[in-house]
Amino acid sequence: MSDEQTYGRRFLDAWKRYASTLAQFDYATIQEMKSADRERFIELLRGRTFALPYATIQLIRDSEPEEVARVMHVRALQARHSADLTLWMLMAMS
Description:
By secondary structure, this protein is mainly alpha-helical. It has one domain. The chain has helices spanning 7-19, 27-34, 38-48, 54-62, 65-93.
């Protein structure tokens, strides 16, 4: 086996740097991701979500895993921020 890291392992390393955790993924998924090439990585994410957005699939196909981890982390933070704002707005209206 080559010393080169897989796409999935590189993604996990980068995700952990951004998110400081891998708690979003269960143990079995992490183990599968570690050995996943780019297309297998897409399959694994498809299995975890109801509908993996086409833009995310293209991002994975066109970008290095470190960039994918960065973009996905930013999107997660934005979604969390939006959810927080919605909650605060609902609380303010009640």
